[in-house]
Design goal:
This protein is α+β, with helices and mostly antiparallel strands. Helix content is about 30%, strand content about 25%. The protein has 14 helices and 22 strands. It has helices at about 20-35, 50-55, 75-85, 100-105, 115-125, 125-135, 150-160, 185-200, 260-275, 305-315, 320-325, 405-415, 425-435, 435-440, and strands at about 15, 35-45, 55-60, 85-90, 110, 165-170, 180, 205-210, 215-225, 230-245, 245-250, 280-290, 295-300, 340-350, 350, 355-360, 360, 365, 375-380, 385, 395-400, 420. It has an eight-stranded antiparallel β-sheet with strand order 13-12-9-10-11-14-21-19, with helices on both faces. A five-stranded parallel β-sheet has the order 3-2-1-4-5. Helix 2 links the parallel strand 2 and strand 3 (about 55-60). The chain is globular and about 60 Å long.
Length: about 450
Amino acid sequence: MARKRKIEPKLFKKVLIANRGEIALRIIRTCKEMGIGTVAVYSTADKESLHVRFADEAVCIGPASSTDSYLSIPKIMAAVEITNSDAVHPGYGFLAENADFAEICTEYGVKFIGPSSAMMKSMGDKITAKETMIKAKVPVVPGSEGLLKSVEEGQKISKKIGYPVMLKATAGGGGKGMRIIWNDEEFEAAWNSARKEAAASFGNDGMYVEKFVEEPRHIEFQIIGDQYGKVVHLSERDCSIQRRHQKLVEECPSPFMTDALRKKMGAAAVKAGKAIDYEGVGTVEFLVDKYRKFYFMEMNTRIQVEHPVTEEVIDRDLIKEQIKVAAGFKLTGKHYYPQMHAIECRINAEDPYNDFRPSPGAINSFHSSKGHGVRVDTHVYAGYRVPPFYDSMIAKLICRAETREECIKKMQRALDEFIVEGIKTTIPFHKKLMLDENFRSGNFNTGFINDFDLGEENQS
């Protein structure tokens, strides 16, 4: 039901970006184009980062540890107060989906650019989210109706829905607290290790179980909701190329998609948004089996790392849309069905020849790709030192073309031009992936990387 309220749309005067790196820089650029003042916060390890240099103001909020800086709500709120910021953009990660942070911003009269605390809570806990989706008649994966009380209960439900099953942490994310279980004998060991990992990662060891979808695609739908009850979708992104549940490559449209499936999944994503009266940009994530049957997996109540993929095919600035919705402006767009193709490769400071081991350190030489239909989002440069304290992503390379085949060729050329010296990166992995016949033909799923042969490292 659409909300009835009188809102006087008005852009913010100053936005504090409660994040770091490329997403902070990305938000700063849009704010400047909209005539909005910007405040960067940074840890001592990020003093030389570009988001600090290009913001109108910058405030150091603590030492390198994220717990003492980017995750410290009191320090961020202090920065809001001393800079007189009237809005906070959380970016992704860190406090982006922290309901308490959103609520505190509201209590202090500062606009949190994103959904409300209540909206986050309804989707932040996977059990609650699943119950909400069932009521909204969005397809969900068969499994337990609530948190499991014991190993025995989990085994009983697993026998009923049929092995294999996936044991999941209710507060999980990034693949933590997840275990595939193939039979009764494996359940107890998986239960113990998953609960221990979940407790350490999220402070919550609640577990539930679902039917394991074999040969699944991970396909998500971008949605936007305004403060008047309107929700639209901007089509899908295929995120199936991933390692240990961490996305490596995303693209739109999905090579697995059909027009009929897109309409069904898009309608389900909009239902999901409307079910919680959603405000802001968000992503409804689905698992799609080999028979093109789809199931709700989770909802990310924030901007996504891979949002440029959608921006490139629809020619709209999603950060701008996000800010306008938060400021009370009505959505004017409709559902989008892609006419172009875009692919994003995440460039991480990792060694793909050494089990993707993190590779922090000084970047001696840096040359990013250029050309028509090529975009690079990054906060690094020659001389920048990649700190060991945060996520290893240093850049996103996005290519756009009229067809998928042309897009892959453009990505190959762009990867050849991308030079990073001094540290190891995932560029060699992406180069090999673009040559893989199964990837080029669209024949892949979320388990694709498990059998991917990177070959020997070129020492020349």
